[in-house]
Amino acid sequence: VIEEPARVLFVARADGRWWLAEFVRGEDGAWQDMDRGQCNLAVVLQDGIGFAAWRLDPARWPAAGDTTLHLLANELACASGRAIGGRLLEPIVLEADDAVTIALRVRARPGGQDCPSNPDQAVTVELAAPIGARPVFDGSSVPPAPRGGAGSDPPPVSLAGPGDEPIPVVVHDPGSIATTVRPATDAEQAAASAAIDEARGIGAVVQPGVVVVAWGGSPCDTGVDVSLSGPREVPTVVVRPHRRDACDAMWVGRAIAIDVPGLDTGEVPVQLVPDAVRRD
Length: 280
What we know:
Blueprint: E1 2-4, E2 7-14, E3 17-25, E4 31-39, E5 49-56, E6 68-75, E7 92-95, E8 100-107, E9 121-126, E10 136-138, E11 145-146, E12 157-159, E13 167-172, E14 180-183, H1 186-193, E15 202-207, E16 210-215, E17 221-229, E18 236-243, E19 254-259, E20 271-272
Parallel strand pairs: 8-10, 13-17, 18-20
Antiparallel strand pairs: 1-2, 2-3, 3-4, 5-6, 5-8, 6-9, 7-8, 10-11, 12-13, 14-19, 15-16, 16-19, 17-18
């Protein structure tokens, strides 16, 4: 990448990483090994402009037909903990048939800045075509970092009842029939808990645009998998808690709210699978 009369620099990619080797010419004309090792590549922007890393908003995860992406941006440079605000420049959006890459640029704050963590800022990005199954990438790094997409699961939702430790909830929704899976509100949990089938330890209620699934959870739960399959009108919801071994704690109620836009309450659209809840 650099070739000068007395200096050359090579950069190559191997084993998924970037490596450099630098050589300089000594006074005797012989080349000497000056530097070598792993390196991180970066895109160089004009002075006063930096990048903001971003992630998809887990509360507004994209569906295949969406042309709007909801991002949470975080400025990489020190900014004294201040929000990006109007310093965000027009996003760079590169759409291809098999991927979408988005780079967010930020105009730096003037003067010296302290370096506490910066707050997230919601950013909306419009696409020229529905996202479909295309993965999305953050162009602030080299190579661009994968950020998921409509065909992937959103990151775990933190689920906790009063006084409980949060546990991760991972949602498997290959058909993108839901837009959000979140902890149920107190009112939603109360309604779903009243519908629990004691023989199966699980129940559900349907409200406009949302399915609430409740089960006789345990403080021993270390995580929960929620699988959604089938058509939006009559989906199958499978809940699989994971528990610590040899845990004798009392059972408590837990509930998950699954937002399904356009869902009517005309009929219960959830088929409960009795064997989905593992209690051992």
